[in-house]
Amino acid sequence: MSPGLLSHLPSFAEGGEVLVVIETPKGSANKYDYDDRIAAFRLAAVMPEGTAFPFDFGFVPSTLGEDGDPLDVLVFMDSPIPVGCVLQARLIGAIEARQRAQGAEWRRNDRLLAVATKARTHAHVHRLEDLRPGLVEEIEGFFGHYNEMNNRRFEPLGRRGPEEAGELVRRGAEAFRRKG
Predict the structure, then answer these.
(1) With contact defined as beta carbons under 8 Å apart, do 122 and 77 qualify?
(2) Which domains occur in the chain, in start order?
(3) Predicted pLDDT at 118
(4) Which of 83, 95, 137, 154 is 20 to 30 A away from residue 145, measured at CA?
(5) What does the CA dihedral 169, 162, 106, 5 come to, rounded to 10 degrees?
């Protein structure tokens, strides 16, 4: 793998915020995945009519989750961010979760939640508790429904604050370094 790939950017920017590579913009019914073998984005899935990503979705580079992929992050921003855009974001928490494909073992697949540094609408959000009531439940429901449509199960296990979310990224970065 070439160190010039998006997946090999640093996990953290100066100042301690995470770097995020956007794979799927807010409002998109198409799910995209970054494929570092070809250094391009691929169409991964098309969601049913009327279903779309509630916020921008991407990954933290140079991290590795238990599912073998970079850590997933949902980013709050004023308007959709294009596929492939790299941005800085402030972690506000995490949804700890596990998921499994039909007939497979359960694997952890947490979802980090972050606010884009340049966001205006969500500039006041620093913790999950700062989001409007019910929003985190809606996000959990979205991931449950999305996984169900793809013959997988998604089960939220708990919620964590920004400090614990940062620790998940540090552990994911260490796992990435070990895999080398």
Answers:
(1) yes
(2) 6-173 (3.90.80.10)
(3) 96
(4) 83
(5) -30
